[in-house]
């Protein structure tokens, strides 16, 4: 058989291919020749053939048939064969294939080889693709090589030890004695790998972290020597001595100093030296400065040092490199809450980044700008952000408009400024604002009594200019309906009043009703506004005619409104002036607080659970009896459901049959109390009065997984009620990772008698497959005695046509949810 072509010739041949098909034909031909050579057990050219096979693998062609040939090369005594064999093993093998276990004995022999280069090959391979079984078997040899005096082997053994620890963390203590001596090594390669090993051990074990904190002075000394040392050609990169080692040491110091006063104190001085002495003209210096900033921010550093770090990030914002600017903005965004005043000094530079062409920099600058807004700079910052809103891409408008709304609500210097700012947003990006912006602005206008004439005049002018921005049109329609008489009378004092007749106002509102740009919701606002003007304007016959026309509208919502308004004109005309009088001032006790009318799982629940007002039990006594035995005793309280779940009538008996027939006499039952009526608001904008429902403690209560079985996962998230801290509000999230939907899903719960529990209606009774959605349901638990929360849950659903029912007990609630 002729000698196969060399690798260099194969590469040259493949590069001459003009098409993909031609290249594929060359590869297939060569693979066939390599297979024939392997079958004939040709030892002479095995190394050459495997090398060509690796090149084909790198081009993306299958090369798995060469795996065993790699093992044969590893077993060879020639170094050239071993080198290609180990390289092939690293590329073609991994721990998912059992073939790799055949290498274990060869690697063990090579780790004890007399030649350091063969030992290095074995260490590299084990550190690259060693499985947990191989790591357990060979950890002893790696630990021996860590103690050798040969720096070439020590650096490779340290990296191999990192891989062993990742695969088998319990072997960490084996490397502890050898690790202590690595930092005294002069060789930079060994120092670098030892710092990597120390970092890995500290990240994986709190005990190791506390043990290695005593090495901080030694690490500080190494870093100081690197900074103060003169030019060293073998370690110099752009005038900086071994920046890779400096970065690794800074990362390790960050881990060691986090949350520890003594360690942080020991590294403050060296961090200041690095921050002031590092050259920033090259990217190498910027990398070291960035790691220094991250370390300063993570440890318990002095305030002056933190200011220095933020100033470095401020300098980064002036850099021409976009990556450096992005990194600086991201880092400042993380630190703005803790060092607000220091970041404020760079406000002008941050605002300039809003004009950057790069969208990622623009977004980070926008987020940081909103974080910097306060009562002192609100006017200037809003001017810049409104200018940005005018010119930014559509992708930014929604987030920018939302941020301006929140900032204006929190820091507005006056009500007129607040109203002007919101109207500017609505005219600029009205189609992108959040759904709650319309009722929020209406509430703001209602409460600003002295601004009613000014506001309605401004909104009327805006309507004449543009009716495409639906939120703006809705607010304008509502205001014209409420304060149309002020518009016609020309009572505006803040600016020159305009002369408007009643017919002109009605023309505009009627135009909204017939416009193709108007949504059904906008038409509802317009019709209601026209109806309200029947008590403010004298054009009663025209208004009656308009309302009667829409009594036959194809839009059911609009038709219902028109029919009801027609009834007001005819049967209840004596009540019309009282019903259509101006809305009273709407009180809002907390900024951005959720309103008392909570939209829960698609149903409106107007009540807040209170010790004095618990809704009465709406379930039959027989079902309550079945539910009481959930916790295996007679000290439980049944659920209180505001709405009966949508379930077939035939399933009603077994729905609540949880464990048995315990008598109601076993424990006290909560007495029914009067509940707040849950009627639908009669008018479009009723129910805007808001009270805070949850306080900020929700952010610190961790979520928990209550149930995980058969692909069904039930997660609990927690909030605490603001009016009554004894109430925990639990939201369940049910997800389904199987390939079929879970239908007729019912979640039930019971608690001991010292608690009271209310279970609201679920968002759905179908849990979608493949985690493509979730079912949510709200539970309110009253815990007046602050006892540890216990709960028994029952799950019922149909999966793949088969009914499934399961019980579970949940006892591991986070302490914050019940204390």
UniProtKB/TrEMBL annotation:
GO biological process, alphabetically ordered: intracellular protein transport; vesicle-mediated transport
Alphabetic keyword roster: Cytoplasmic vesicle, Golgi apparatus, Membrane, Protein transport, Transport
InterPro entries: Adaptor_Complx_Large_Subunit, AP1_complex_gsu, Clathrin/coatomer_adapt-like_N, Clathrin_a/b/g-adaptin_app_Ig, GAE_dom
Domain of life of the source: Eukaryota
GO CC terms, sorted: cytoplasmic vesicle membrane; Golgi apparatus; membrane coat
Span of domain GAE: 699-814
Localization of this protein: Cytoplasmic vesicle membrane; Golgi apparatus
Keyword Chaperone: no
PROSITE patterns attached to this UniProt entry: GAE
Family statement: Belongs to the adaptor complexes large subunit family.
Name of this chain's protein: AP-1 complex subunit gamma
Organism: Cyprinus carpio carpio
Record lineage: Eukaryota, Metazoa, Chordata, Craniata, Vertebrata
């Amino acid at each position: 058989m002729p000698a196969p072509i060399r690798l260099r010739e194969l590469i040259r041949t493949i590069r001459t291919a003009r098409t993909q098909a031609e290249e594929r034909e060359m590869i297939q031909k060569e693979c066939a020749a390599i297979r024939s050579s392997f079958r004939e057990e040709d030892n002479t050219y095995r190394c050459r053939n495997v090398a060509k096979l690796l090149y084909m693998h790198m081009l993306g062609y299958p090369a798995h048939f060469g795996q065993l040939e790699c093992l044969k090369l590893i077993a060879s005594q020639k170094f050239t064969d071993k080198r290609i064999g180990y390289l092939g093993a690293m590329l073609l093998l991994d721990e998912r294939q059992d073939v790799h276990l055949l290498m274990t004995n060869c690697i063990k022999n090579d780790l004890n080889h007399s030649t350091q280069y063969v030992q290095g090959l074995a260490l590299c391979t084990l550190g690259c693709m060693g499985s947990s079984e191989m790591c357990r078997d060979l950890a002893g040899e790696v630990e021996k090589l860590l103690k050798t005096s040969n720096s070439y082997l020590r650096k490779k053994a340290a990296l191999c030890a990192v891989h062993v620890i990742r695969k088998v963390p319990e072997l960490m203590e084996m490397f502890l004695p050898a690790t202590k001596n690595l930092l005294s090594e002069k060789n930079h390669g060994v120092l670098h790998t030892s710092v990597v090993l120390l970092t890995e051990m500290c990240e994986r074990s709190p005990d190791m972290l506390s043990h290695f904190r005593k090495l901080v002075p030694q690490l500080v000394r190494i870093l100081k020597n690197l900074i103060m040392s003169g030019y060293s050609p073998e370690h110099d990169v752009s005038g900086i001595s071994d920046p890779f080692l400096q970065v690794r040491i800074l990362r390790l110091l960050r881990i060691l100093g986090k949350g520890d006063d003594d360690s942080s104190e020991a590294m403050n001085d060296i961090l200041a030296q690095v921050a002031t002495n590092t050259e920033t003209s090259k990217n190498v210096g910027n990398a070291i400065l960035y790691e220094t900033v991250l370390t300063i921010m993570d440890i318990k550093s002095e305030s002056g040092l933190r200011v220095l770090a933020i100033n470095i990030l401020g300098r980064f914002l002036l850099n021409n490199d976009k990556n450096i600017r992005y990194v600086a903005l991201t880092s400042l965004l993380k630190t703005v809450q803790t060092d607000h005043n220091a970041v404020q000094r760079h406000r002008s530079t941050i605002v300039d980044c809003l004009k950057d062409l790069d969208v990622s920099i623009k977004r980070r600058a926008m987020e940081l700008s909103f974080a910097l807004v306060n009562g002192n700079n609100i006017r200037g910052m809003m001017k810049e952000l409104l200018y940005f809103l005018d010119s930014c891409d559509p992708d930014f408008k929604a987030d920018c408009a939302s941020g301006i709304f929140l900032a204006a609500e929190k820091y507005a210097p006056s009500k007129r400024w607040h109203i002007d700012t919101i109207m500017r947003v609505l005219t600029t990006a009205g189609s992108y604002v959040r759904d709650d912006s319309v009722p929020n602005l209406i509430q703001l206008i209602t409460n600003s009594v002295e601004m009613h004439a000014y506001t309605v005049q401004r909104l009327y002018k805006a309507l004449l200019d543009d009716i495409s921005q639906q939120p703006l049109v809705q607010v304008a329609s509502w205001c014209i309906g409420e304060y149309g008489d002020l518009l016609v009378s020309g009572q505006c004092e803040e600016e020159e009043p305009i002369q408007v007749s009643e017919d002109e106002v009605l023309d505009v509102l009627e135009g909204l009703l017939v416009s193709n740009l108007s949504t059904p919701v906008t038409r509802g606002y317009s019709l209601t506004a026209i109806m309200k003007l029947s008590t403010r304007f004298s054009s009663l016959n025209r208004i009656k005619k308009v309302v009667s026309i829409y009594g036959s509208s194809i839009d059911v919502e609009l038709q219902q409104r028109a029919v009801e308004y027609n009834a007001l004109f005819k049967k209840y005309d004596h009540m019309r002036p009282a019903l259509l009088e101006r809305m009273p001032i709407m009180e809002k006790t907390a900024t951005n607080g959720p309103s008392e009318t909570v939209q829960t799982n698609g149903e409106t629940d107007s009540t807040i659970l209170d010790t004095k007002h618990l809704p009465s039990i709406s379930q039959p006594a027989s079902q309550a009896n079945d539910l009481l035995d959930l916790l295996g005793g007679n000290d439980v309280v049944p659920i209180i459901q505001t709405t009966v779940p949508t379930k077939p009538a035939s399933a009603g008996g077994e729905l609540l049959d949880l464990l048995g027939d315990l008598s109601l006499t076993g424990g006290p039952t909560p007495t029914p109390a009067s509940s707040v009526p849950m009627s639908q608001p009669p008018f479009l904008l009723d129910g805007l009065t808001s009270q805070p429902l949850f306080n900020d403690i929700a952010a610190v209560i961790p979520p928990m997984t209550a149930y995980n079985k058969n692909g069904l996962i039930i997660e609990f998230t927690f909030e605490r009620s603001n009016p009554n801290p004894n109430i925990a509000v639990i939201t369940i999230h049910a997800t389904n990772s199987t390939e079929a939907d879970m239908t007729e899903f019912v979640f039930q719960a019971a608690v001991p008698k010292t608690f009271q529990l209310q279970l609201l209606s679920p968002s759905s009774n179908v849990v979608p497959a493949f985690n493509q959605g979730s079912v949510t349901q709200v539970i309110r638990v009253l815990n007046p005695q602050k006892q540890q929360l216990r709960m028994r849950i029952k799950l019922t659903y149909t999966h793949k046509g088969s009914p499934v029912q399961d019980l579970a007990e949940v006892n591991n609630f986070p302490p914050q949810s019940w204390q």
